Amino acid sequence: MSISWPRLAHLRHVLGRRSLRGSASWMRLLSFSPVSWLCARQGNGAGSLAPGGTIFALSSGQGRCAIAVIRTSGPASGLALRSLTAAREPPPARSACLRLLRHPRSGEPLDRALVLWFPGPQSFTGEDCVELHVHGGSAVVSGVLQALGSVPGLRPAEAGEFTRRAFAHGKLSLAEVEGLADLIHAETEAQRRQALRQLDGELGQLCQDWVKTLNKALAHVEAYIDFGEDDNLEEGVLEQADRDVRALEAALRSHLWDARRGQRLRSGVHVVVTGPPNAGKSSLVNLLKPGTTRDVLETPVDLAGFPALLSDTAGLREGVGAAEQEGVRRARQRLEQADIILGVLDASDLASPSSCSFLNTVVAPLVTQSPDSSRQRLLLLLNKSDLLSTNASAMDTALPPHMLLSCRTGAGLDNLLQALKTELAVVCGDPFTGAPVLTRARHQHHLQGCLDALGHFQPDTDLALAAEALRQARRHLSHLTGGGGTEEILDLIFQDFCVGK
Ligand code: GDP
User: Which range marks the domain in which residue 141 is found?
Assistant: First the structure.
């Protein structure tokens, strides 16, 4: 569709009128300002974080270290810096300077430190900020913190308060805040990579592209409402909007299809070790995570850079006693929840009744399942390969694809880790490539809400309803990046932070 320039200008004028007239919710959305939200909070003082003022905290880790970083944020930061350095002016902005820090009341020297002055809004939080890089001894740190506390207008920060201020001043979107929280908690390489991508704003960027598509479709529909009957618009305006919305639906669907993967990457892939008694299950768990004891239900482990929750289904043998039956029930339940199953057999005992029963009841159904992406993945391991004679591997042609392993000698472990890495990348999504993954149930919820709203976009039946469906869809996307966030959700997200972040 092409709309001539004068007509486009006229459209803008009319759309402006229409927005004021009929789209109060849209206007609310557009006029949402995190800063006014913060000011409103400062007014009523509600919420878990004490609002306002100038905050300070130790931002590096607790405990003795070479250098500790203490930060402040807020309007009295400059005063704090001048008070501690006994200077009239702060040092040049964003340059590290060596200064003697003194207690502002007693004048007692505290430390010779590197100080950095970040006048707002060019700072992490958007406010005036100071960083003090002091020697990491606990007496120095507590002395400087006490000194800061004595400066009028300064108070200790609460958990997540620096980041919350950065969000409030539009320095970070909510998705980026979540990325930052994940980065602080990242334990494996894949988690770190994924968190960095989210912190870089990839998810927010994707949402913005989707919002642009919705805005364009909405402009077309509203234009049609105003001009359609006068026959002032080119042919195909609605058809184009419909095509764009359907394409957007397809994109959202494929992201939702992937959503489980992002959550697995964040919270860990369930890897369950199963097999007949004495096959070597707990030996394998111990090989993957030394020191694991049988009574631990699930143990977190870094498998080839991916986060996994490893468990062993001891007790998958039928028994008569109530305790044994409960054990069997739990073992089966864990097996059903598994994303990846490591099936272990004793290679020197493949003909035994327990091996055959395991192959028939557990392995065969997994091997024959339909190859959709939600299926459980199986790696079949023939353990105790050290007990086999050298030409023994040829005997197993009737078995499903498998790998030889010896938990005793470690032979075959590298192959197993390589195969696991491949499976984990399928189950989690590869954070090194591809589209940004949705790591939280919250993302999934809003994407699904957006998709549901688009299901009501039927421009051939009711144009007013179709326009409302687009607005509703857009609202869900703005919630995802934090534009329309409610305080409860914000509180939950910021709880993930430590003091000083
Ligand atoms: P689970 O009942 O399946 O957990 O089996 P375990 O891990 O307790 O192992 C049963 C027995 O097999 C133990 O005596 C282990 O030392 C032994 N075992 C485990 N792996 C190997 C292996 O690779 N080679 C040999 N020769 N023995 C093994």
Answer: 54-157
Which pLDDT score is estimated for 383? 96
Per-residue pLDDT tens over the stretch 58-110: 988 776 778 899 999 999 999 999 999 988 888 999 999 999 999 998 999 99
Q: State which of 282, 316, 407 you would mutate to test the pocket of ligand 1, scoring each by most atoms of that ligand within 8 A of its C-beta.
A: 407
Which residue has the least CA distance to atom 15 on ligand 1?
A: 280
**Distance (Å) from CA 346 to ligand 1 centroid:** 8
Largest separation between any pair of C-alpha atoms in the chain: 88
CA–centroid distance, residue 286 to ligand 1 (Å): 11
CA of 313 to the centre of ligand 1 (A): 15
Smallest CA separation from ligand 1 atom 22, residue: 384
145/267 same-domain check: no
Query: Which residues does ligand 1 sit against, CB inside 6 Å?
Result: 275, 277-283, 383-384, 386-387, 406-408
Ligand 1 atom, smallest distance to 405 CA = 23
Q: How far is CA 434 from CA 78, 157, 431, 441, 448, in A?
A: 44, 38, 7, 20, 21
Domain boundary residue, one of 117, 133, 157:
157
Q: From ligand 1's centre to the CA of 407, what distance in Å?
A: 7
> Is there a cis peptide before residue 121, judged by omega within 30 degrees of 0?
yes
Sign, CA dihedral 474-478-479-485, equals negative
The mean predicted confidence, pLDDT, of the chain is 77
Per-residue pLDDT band for 130 (boundaries 50, 70, 90) equals: very high
Question: Which helix (H) or strand (E) segment is 311 a member of?
Answer: strand 306-312
DSSP string, 422-444: HHHHHHH--TTSSSPPP-SHHHH
Closest protein CA for atom 27 of ligand 1: 384
Q: How remote is the CA of residue 284 from the centroid of ligand 1, in Å?
A: 8
CATH number at residue 336: 3.40.50.300
Q: Domain count for the chain, please give it.
A: 2
Looking at per-residue confidence, does 175 or 74 come out higher? 74
* pLDDT (0 to 100) of residue 470: 93
**Distance of CA 419 from the midpoint of ligand 1 (Å):** 22
Tell whether 411 and 268 lie within a shared domain.
yes
Cα–Cα distance between 396 and 389 in angstroms, integer? 13
Confidence of residue 372 (pLDDT cuts 50, 70, 90): low
Q: What is the DSSP secondary structure assignment for residue 2, as one 8-state letter?
A: -
Same domain as 418, residue 297: yes
pTM for the structure as a whole: 0.57
Closest ligand 1 atom, residue 409 Cα: 23
Of all residues in the chain, the percent with pLDDT exceeding 90 is 30
Residue 137, pLDDT > 50, answer yes
Q: What are the phi and psi torsion angles at 364 (to 5°)?
A: -55, -50
Distance, CA 280 to ligand 1 centroid (Å)? 4
